[in-house]
Amino acid sequence: METISRRTFLAASAAAASSGLLAACGGAPAAQPAGSTGQTTAGPRRGGAIVYGSPIDPLTLDAHAVSDNYTRRVAYAIYDPLVRESPDKTEILPALAERWEQASDGMSWTLSLRRGVKFHDGTPFNAEAAKFNLDRQINPDHPNNKDGNWLFYRLFLTPIASVDVVDEYTIRLNLKQRYAPLMNYLTTNPSYMISPKALRELGKGVADRPVGTGPFRFSSWQKGQQLTLERNPEYWGQTAYADQLIVRPIPDAQSRLLALQTGQINFTVDLPPDSVDIVRGDSRLRVQQRVSRQHWAIQLSQRFQPFTDQRVRQAISLALDRTALTRDVLRGTGQPARGPFSPAFGEWVARDLPANDNQPDRARQLLREAGVDTLDVRFLIPSGGTGMQQPVPMAEFIQGKLAAVGIRVTLDVQEFAAYVQRWNAGDFQMSARGISSVTFDPDNYLNSLFNSINFPPQGLNAAFYRNEKFDELASTVRRESTPTVRRNACHEAQRILMNDMPWVFVDHEIAMWYHAAEVNGFVMRDNVEVDWNLLYLA
Amino acid sequence: MADAKPTVAPLALSTRGTQASSASVSPRAQAWRRFRRHPLAVAGTVVLLTIVALALAAPVLPLANPTPMELQTVNRLRPVGWPGYLLGSDELGRDLLSRLVWGGRTSLLAGIGAALLSLVPGVALGLTAGYFRGWVDSAATHLIDIVMAFPGVLLAIAIVAAAGPGLTNAMVAVAIVGIPLYARLVRGHVLSLREREFIQAAEALGSSTPRILFRHLLPNCLPLIIVAGTLDVGAKLIATASLSFLGLGTQAPQPDWGAMLATGRQFFFVAPHVALLPGLLIFLTVVSFNLLGEGLQEALDSRLPL
Amino acid sequence: MLSAFLLRRLLATVPIAVGVATIVFAVMRFVPGDPAALLAGPNASDDVIRAIRAEYGLDDPLVVQYVRWLGRLVRGDFGESIFLRRPVLAEVLDRFGNTAILGAASLALAAAGGIVAGILAATRARSLVDRLVMFLALCGVGLPVFWTGMVLIVIFAVQLRWLPPQGMSPPVRQGPFDIVPFLILPAVTLALPSLAFIARVTRMSMVEVLQQDYIRAARAKGLAGHAVLWGHALKNALIPVVTIVGAQAGYLLGGAVLVEYVFGWPGLGLLIVNGINSRDYPLVQGGIVFTAFVFVIINLFVDVLYTRIDPRIRYGGR
Fold first, then answer.
1. Residue range(s) in chain A whose domain bears CATH number 3.40.190.10
2. Is A127:A170 a contact under the CB 8 Å cutoff?
3. B147 φ, ψ to 5°?
4. Residue A219: other Cβ atoms inside 10 A
5. How big is the CA angle at B233 (ends B228 and B234), to the nearest 5 degrees?
6. What are the CA-CA distances from residue A374 to residues A306, A402, A490 (Å)?
7. Is the dihedral angle over the CA atoms A520, A525, A527, A530 positive or is it negative?
8. How confident is the model at residue C229 (pLDDT cuts 50, 70, 90)?
9. Is A334 helix (H, G, I), strand (E, B) or coil?
């Protein structure tokens, strides 16, 4: 067994033991991460409804078609992935797959599946079902392949060449290339399991009538108004404490705050930074916070003349005042960033990165050395959107700081969808984006954002950054299995990145969750998912 | 079909002033005398003139920069009366008084501009349709009916959404939607004028068509147009502010009452004045325009038909 | 006589309906950005985008798209919403129900409140009450609904906690009338400008009628004041009011957009605004066309009502 999988398996066993359950060996109820947290006091109570005020209506409930975090969070109540991330450690835990093993040549992985699991429609979950689900996204001849464009699959799991059924509860994933972060990416929605029967009968229709294995099953959905899910009494893990999980889309942040204050919802995210203190001061409400994996960064296009000069890029970073920005504009809901990786990435973060912050004199000097007297630049930002924090006030703040060193910035504020389209095409001089990794593995940021094989329109290297040394290190992180080799390559890649500064990293969002005091059992994860089944009212 | 804009209201603080006036007084003086009889109209005009004067004088007033490059974010969301910030500050520490005055320029410009942009083509359309009648009239009437088949705000929203957000686009969208209002009004009036002797006389004397349109018909429509236009500015101001409120109008960092209100809404609990003040100013301005319009209605003795 | 009029009036709505459809189509084609690319989501491959363009017929010449669109409208096919993955008409009808509830409640409030206030002022013409009511009405006409809504929410939902601040129903439904508390604030917000407007029209109309000869004659014949007021004056005074109320129904349909936005009321207006933000072409097109059609029908209805209550009106040739 490879080092990673053994380590994660041991961790999984430990987590299971701590929650008072034995690690599953057969059809027994399985380890549910963080099951222990809700059980400290009188014990969880059954009943009631968790009412989640979501910033958007789920775009789809077809797990494989999900391509945004808000929707994934809701889909996670209905579906289980093959494996999941631990809520508070950077490790992989079993879910529908109990054990996994990488072949010695690294070109395939064998997964042992959990037994006795049934989909909400009674269909048994087994190796055939798992293959049917993965093939839907891999194989163009699969009857349901044309149901969607499988964005997350294409982003994260394209190295999978094929899926073999070894026996009723074992599958083998054959790879096109060595792919160290495979299990990390299998925590995301392409590995959520949908009932093959439902897929055959409904096709695309599962987007509106989802059938999974998760702790909640579909009840009703009035789009734009309310999605109602009800407890799955036959859940293989900890059955949900709440009778219902109700998702109400409330796009306006201020309205979400009002709804929370007046008890219309009892669980929500993304309130205006200024209202955090209001929630804190309200004895009926609770706030939980944790540094997220997100980073908010300025992209300096390498296709725009003066930005090709490294001194100009450095000057922009030095002109900013990240402390004032996070303190005043973000009201403490962000923390200054030095690189792409927030502290949530633990050992992957290179510790010796320079701050490059709040030195306007040095910024002016660098600009002089680069021969830049005045510079006019258009700054593309959205009016709002997923992970963007407070784009307009932040951009206005940056506009002021850059003006002080002689760079005149014109804001180009676009509605989010239009902005995303231009950003993804690399159609800007300077832009800003808040991006959150789907995994704690560094592969996601290093390769999709900065590897020169990922220039737009195929990839997200929207600043058109190219450094061969960096590319090599990023590829090492992708292919090598040995943790120390990957870690060293990752650290070295960060140093190169911070020296080249194609992106100016500004802050890491502090993820804030807000809920009514009577909601218990909530444990924040670093990613977007919530263990809905563990929430209870008391 | 009746007019669908509630703000273009026939105002009736008193019954129609149809007192015979002495021949020695000029019509203008008579109008002024009738206007003065309505204290509310006068009060509204004074308020309005103050707001307009402030907005016009913004560049020479001793105000802070409404869009400073170097932001004092430490002083954000200060309350009214904070030292150095007479009316407090916004979410980026910008002086609220200054932004309200400068924002007034934008909002007033939007309201007045949109009203003019509907007035001019609307009047032209109404004049030609009413004068030429026949196919010109029926084509114009159909066009008017079609545009009026849309609830105004909605069509404006659709136009801005299509053309892209921005102050100019918002103004044009709101203006397009308002054109039929004037066209109908003027067409109706012209149809009745056309039968009158002085027009028939002018035609008989061989006056050119432009001359009849602009020398005879237009001046006779003017009182009506002035009253309708004044009342309409309020409606247009609210309409453009609505678009800004939805994020489809003025874009940051330019101040505008509607946009300021939308942003201030996010801070309503910590600093209610940031949203309340621009709303109050919109309200005051619109009411003042309506009062002025009402006074003019009396003064010019030119009541809008229902 | 009336049915002939009705028929002609109905026929006249056909070119208007076609015109409405044409304008909406023309407007929506100005939208910048490639809808297919937005549809496919970020990082979609060119193949996927091409497939979507083909599926939605976005590659065809405009004329072809236009004719196809008109043909579908005639068959009641408003297309399929991109983001909601269901027929636009079904979604629009669902949401229109919610808007209709809000609009009907507001219209009832505005009509009842406005007529009562208007009569109150007219019967005491030139008194302090009259001036006060008319001044308040004048202010009401100038209220920006997005501001009023915000203020009402803060007072009644946040401070007093009497009413919910947003939404249309509690998460767990308790019968069809559980929406009433949710309805009050948005309905009042939307009604206020119309209420003020109707009050002014009623007052003016009443004052004029009360000055007319036949009322004076009735008074001279010794009919008591109240009998005159209710028996003759009101009936005649309300004729223009009915037209105005009808027109307000249309105004409320448009004004509801902002109120729905502020209160998160899941109506047609909110659907359209959200559709604009997500660039859901078919949804926005269908929603606006549908609203305009409803508006046309309301106007038709008002016209017919008008002939019923006003014996003086006989519709002949134009």
1. 2-29+41-246
2. yes
3. -65, -35
4. 13
5. 110
6. 11, 11, 36
7. negative
8. low
9. strand
The domain defined by B28-62+84-299 folds into: MetI-like fold (1.10.3720)
Q: Do C243 and B2 touch (CB under 8 A)?
A: yes
Which residue in this structure is represented by tokens 């159909």? B142
Shortest CA distance to B230 belongs to which of B156, B283, B304? B304
Taking CA atoms, what residue in B is nearest to A400? B69
Amino acid at site C241: V
Question: What class, spelled out in words, does domain A295-511 have in CATH?
Answer: alpha beta
Pairwise CB contact (< 8 Å): B245 & C146: yes
Contact criterion met (CB < 8 Å) for B13 and C131: yes
CB proximity under 8 Å: C 150-169 to A: 153, 157-158, 161, 164-169
* Amino acid letter for position B194: R
Amino acid of residue A535: L
The CATH H-level superfamily of A2-29+41-246 is: Periplasmic binding protein-like II (3.40.190.10)
Give CA–CA dist A280/B19, Å, rounded: 67
Q: Which value, to the nearest 10 degrees, does the dihedral of the CA atoms of residues C33, C34, C35, C41 take?
A: -100
Residues C205/B10, Cβ–Cβ less than 8 Å: no
Contact: B267, A383; criterion CB under 8 Å? no
The whole model's pTM is what? Answer: 0.81
Residue C34: both structure tokens together: 């490639």
Least confident of A137-141, A461-465, C72-76, C247-251: C247-251
DSSP state letter for A307: G
Residues of chain B contacting residue C261, judged by C-beta atoms under 8 Å apart:
246
Inform me whether the C-beta atom of residue C171 falls under 8 Å from chain A C-beta atoms. Answer: yes
Task: List Cα–Cα distances, A334 to A133, A269, A325, A509, B70, in angstroms.
Answer: 38, 15, 9, 4, 21
H or E element that contains C19: helix C2-28
- Whether residue A168 lies within 8 A of chain B, CB to CB, comes out as no
Handedness of CA A521, A525, A531, A537 (dihedral sign): positive
Distance in angstroms (rounded) separating the CA atoms of residues C103 and C255: 9
Let me know: does A337 contact A297? Beta carbons within 8 Å: yes
Percentages helix, strand, coil for chain B, rounded to the nearest 5? 70, 0, 30
Mean pLDDT, chain B, rounded, equals: 83
Q: Is B272 on the interface with A (CB under 8 A)?
A: no
CATH classification code of C92-277: 1.10.3720.10
Q: What band does A21 get if pLDDT is binned at 50, 70 and 90?
A: very low
CA atoms within 13 A on the CB side of A400: 24
Q: How far apart are CA A109 and CA A70, in angstroms?
A: 30
Cα dihedral A401, A404, A406, A407, rounded to 10, equals 20
- A156 contact partners, CB below 8 Å, separation of at least 6: A185, A188, A190, A438, A444
> How far is B262 from C134, CA to CA, in rounded Å?
30
Ranges for all domains in chain A classified under CATH 3.10.105.10: 295-511
Termini Cα distance of chain A? 44
Neighbours of A387 (CB within 10 A): 18
Neighbours of A231 (CB within 10 A): 21
pLDDT of residue A149: 79
Q: Provide the 8-state DSSP code for A89.
A: S
CA angle A253, C36, C80 (to 5 degrees): 75
Q: How far apart are CA A121 and CA C87, in angstroms?
A: 27
Is 90 exceeded by the pLDDT of residue A286?
Answer: yes
Q: Answer whether B266 sits within 8 Å of A254, measured CB to CB.
A: yes
Residue from the list C144, C243, C292 with its beta carbon closest to the beta carbon of B149:
C292
Nearest to C313 by CA among C242, C232, C249: C242
Tell how strand A430-435 and strand A375-382 pair up: parallel
- Decide if B164 touches C, using CB distance below 8 A: yes
